[in-house]
């Protein structure tokens, strides 16, 4: 036991060192921005971030609780923050692995833990696509000029996002469609061995996803609907963070900030950056800077990064340390 405790201490020290090194330029900027931000705004954005992870924890509990009824909402919330830590450490690529590991520690079978992680991810991606598409259509009808010279590119990007969401939804429920998609992918990957390995992994995850989705759809549609609604609700919490910082800046209103944030987040999913790190901020800057000015949008980006990345990771480190 003592040896395991020292190993955990060592991991905590290593993680801390990695975070300090990689984000060495961001800590000071973020700290200065927080100091210059009204306390009520700081409390609001941290509260919204906390709500995101509380809802995410409820989603995890609904999925893990299907096979282990004693798995509590409190444990689901702990898992959500635990994953937030590893999302930052691995730049997004280790989130699912962290969730499976945490659930397995709580006596959820690895196969069921994997299915929970895949269903959770799929529900979130579909929710992001639905939210972003609705935001884009609303802005296009309200005032197309708000999207500026990027309207054509945004339309193309949203088309890709809708396609991704449609593919995820299709392979979630249809074995035939999934088989056709993988056959086409196998032909495309015939000359690329690395692609074949990734396709095999994707095929395994798809089988897990289909089984879990089929069970939910056939026997627990209420839970499936609640998972999707919770996914929309948790994304709303993140999308409200820029509203706290930008509403009223240069006359910009809530009904512009919220849908434009949803569009920014959706488009970040089609940029090949691990975990979306940097891509959200880049798109956010391009879309908002003409409306609010560079100073206001850069301030909002720093606070957003603090609320969705640094703050939950700190809580996740506490969860990791106390587990």
TrEMBL record:
Keyword terms, alphabetized: Antibiotic resistance, Cell membrane, Coiled coil, Lipid metabolism, Membrane, Transferase, Transmembrane, Transmembrane helix
Membrane association type: Multi-pass membrane protein
Coiled-coil annotated spans: 185-216
UniProt keyword Membrane present: yes
Highest taxon listed in the record's lineage: Bacteria
Family to which the UniProt record says this protein belongs: Belongs to the LPG synthase family.
The protein's role, per its UniProt record: Catalyzes the transfer of a lysyl group from L-lysyl-tRNA(Lys) to membrane-bound phosphatidylglycerol (PG), which produces lysylphosphatidylglycerol (LPG), a major component of the bacterial membrane with a positive net charge. LPG synthesis contributes to bacterial virulence as it is involved in the resistance mechanism against cationic antimicrobial peptides (CAMP) produces by the host's immune system (defensins, cathelicidins) and by the competing microorganisms.
Protein name: Phosphatidylglycerol lysyltransferase
């Amino acid at each position: 036991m003592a040896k395991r405790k020292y190993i955990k201490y060592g991991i905590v020290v290593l993680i801390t060192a990695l975070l300090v090194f990689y984000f060495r330029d961001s800590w000071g900027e973020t700290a200065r921005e927080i100091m210059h931000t009204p306390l009520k705004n700081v409390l609001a954005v941290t509260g919204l971030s906390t709500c995101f992870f509380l809802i995410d924890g409820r989603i995890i509990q609904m999925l893990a609780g299907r096979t282990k009824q004693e798995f509590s909402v409190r444990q689901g919330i702990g898992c959500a923050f635990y994953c937030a830590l590893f999302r930052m450490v691995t730049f997004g690529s280790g989130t699912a692995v962290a969730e499976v590991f945490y659930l397995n520690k709580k006596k959820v079978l690895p196969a069921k833990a994997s299915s929970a992680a895949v269903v959770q991810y799929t529900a979130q991606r579909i929710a992001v696509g639905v939210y972003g598409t609705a935001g884009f259509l609303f802005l296009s009808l309200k005032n197309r000029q708000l999207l500026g010279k990027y309207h054509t590119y945004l339309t193309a990007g949203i088309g890709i996002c809708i396609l991704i969401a449609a593919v995820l939804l299709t392979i979630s429920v249809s074995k035939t469609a999934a088989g056709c998609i993988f056959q086409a992918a196998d032909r495309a990957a015939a000359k690329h061995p690395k692609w074949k390995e990734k396709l095999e992994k994707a095929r395994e995850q798809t089988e897990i996803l289909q089984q879990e989705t089929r069970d939910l759809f056939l026997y627990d549609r209420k839970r499936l609907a609640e998972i999707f609604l919770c996914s929309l609700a948790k994304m709303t919490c993140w999308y409200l963070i820029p509203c706290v910082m930008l509403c009223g800046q240069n006359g910009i209103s809530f009904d512009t900030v919220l849908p434009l944030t949803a569009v920014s987040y959706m488009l970040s999913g089609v940029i090949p950056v691990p975990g979306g790190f940097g891509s959200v901020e880049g798109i956010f800057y391009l879309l908002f800077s003409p409306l609010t000015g560079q100073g206001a949008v850069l301030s909002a980006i720093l606070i957003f990064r603090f609320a969705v990345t640094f703050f939950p990771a700190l809580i996740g480190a506490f969860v990791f340390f106390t587990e």
